[in-house]
Amino acid sequence: MKKEAVCSDAQRRAQVEHAIVEAARLLVGPDPLDMQALLRLLGEATGAASVYFVGVPQSREQEEEYTYTVWHRRRPRVSNWWRELETRIRQHFPTPTAQDEVLHLSENLLVVPVLSAEERFYGYLGLEFSDGLPEARQEEARLLEVLGGLLATYFDRQATETARRESEERWRLLVEQLPEPILLAAQDRLVYLNPAGRRLLGAEEEEDLTGRSLLDFFSADQYEEIARQLRRLEAGASVAPFECTVIRFDGEERVVELTAAPVVFEGRPVVQMILRDLTERRRAEERYRSFVRTITEGIWRIELRQPVAVTTLPELQVEHLYRYGYLAECNAVMARWLGASDPEAVAGRPLETLRHYFRPRYLREFVQRGYELHGEEYALPGKQGMRYYVVNAVGTVERDRLVRIWGSAIEVTERVELERRMVQTLEAQQQAIGRDLHDGVGQLLTSIRMLSENLAHRLKAEQHELTELAQKVVRFAQEAAEGVRAIYRGLTPAQLYTEDLTLALEELAYNTNALPGIRCRFETDGQVCIDDPEVKLHLYRIAQEAVNNALKHAHASEIVLTLHRRDEFVELCVTDNGCGIDPQRARADSLGLKTMYYRARTIGGTLHIHSQPGEGTTICCRWPVGGVPGTV
């Protein structure tokens, strides 16, 4: 009997071991688990009357919804056996157990909770015997415990696989909508492309590309670099984004920035690549560089290592620009103006070292005008005399801080010189006319006056009836001579050559004030002393033209002339209370205003018109003391 018992125990142990192997095969196989087959295998190995698996809800939405899979050796005597089973389970396990050991729930029932290593509870696996549970059932209990653990592992794997599929599906739904091309490659073979990726490579269907070598879409000179980067990614290393060129199906080349990282796709490691198409930007940059190379204007960009707040005082902002600004880029024209042989020789230089061009006055004007300058006239001393420029600049402000300045400049030296010669010619003509009037017409009028006076005296002595008419001729001749002298003084004011500009402006204001219906006065701080006759003449002509415009076009009743010293500048202003003008339209249409601008540029100064229709007009000319404009 003892020998038979030993044989029986050995046979049962062999059956259990075989059942464990077969159950493991079912649980790790690629096919979905046949729970009924697993329970049947367990029942046949243990001789149990019934084997069941009770699945517990895995979410709150499924609460109270238990699932049952049962194998019976014989048909149960009652039809509602599962209700009895559920009652017993709920009685013994009102809450999920935290232990995965086999439990003896009654004299013939063995149950093991199916609990994963992460303590995720899936249900109960049970064996029910018809002949009780003697201690000889240890092998059956061991089998039940092993299968409970295997089943928990299976459910874990299924949950992980389900989560992975759902994650991949969400990922796919996302990348299908993204505008950026996304490619997945494994062992340099394409395994997935989103629609943007297919469009980038010029393919209509994903099947046209999947399975092909990634290197098919790169030029031969890039093979080594691409392969090296792929090897690094497949080894788990990180790779910085880099630029490369891809070749489409139609042979067109596209410049892209490639960002790659190792990921898992469909359960296997792959390399995910995001391609950012830079082709149009590179073409635009090339067009910009070509434009900058060929344009005759000077183009430049200043960057600030430390941005400056827009609320900072202008003088402090100028100091900040010199301290933290540097020339980030410029074209060849600008480099030549800065005294460099090429842009590379001057790029990166601190703004402080370029003060000879980026003058404090210019930067101050830029800051005070809200980081915008349009058509600002600028003059610099050069090796061959004064050089004249028209400068435009605009600042980039981010979060109330100035971070960079873009600018351009056009050299207008030839135009200014032409204007200078034109103004000099005009001035020479005026002086010639004045001399002709004085020496020719003036002398004739003097002779006529003298002869008519003599005739009037003789007729008066004879008490002739034409005496009164002769006296009228004398008065007319005298008035004509005075008019010629006034015109001569206006065309060639003698004070400008022999005395100070102040006296000429005082006389201009005095003569204007003598006109009916007009009040005119002149104000000065007494600190202006200009020795250059040409500068005095042009400033006088500007004031003269401004007064004439106020009288003839503005219909002003009050005119104020002012001459002051402003730091390193002399400022001449003519202000009226007339109807005002549109400065842009007036500058385009008025020969007088154009002449004033020409005269200001001729002496290295600037002219500004401040006016609005109905609000009067102020015309100001600023001339740098010493005749070196732009030095402050």
How would you describe this structure to a colleague?
The protein has a five-stranded antiparallel β-sheet with strand order 2-1-5-4-3, sandwiched between helices. Strands 7-6-10-9-8 form a five-stranded antiparallel β-sheet, with helices on both faces. It has a five-stranded antiparallel β-sheet with strand order 12-11-15-14-13. The longest helix is centred in the last third of the chain and has 49 residues, at 413-461. The protein is rod-shaped and about 180 Å long. With 632 residues, the protein is of the alpha+beta class. It contains 18 helices and 20 strands.
Helix segment count? 18
- Secondary structure class reads alpha+beta
Low-confidence parts: 1-7, 628-632
Main pleated-sheet profile = 5 strands, antiparallel
- Taking the alpha carbons of the first and last residues, their distance comes to 122 Å
Q: What's the arrangement of strands in the largest beta sheet?
A: 2-1-5-4-3
Beta fraction: 25-35%
Relative helix content: 40-55%
- The rough form would be described as rod-shaped
Radius of gyration: 51 Å
Question: What is the number of E strands?
Answer: 20
Average pLDDT metric: 79
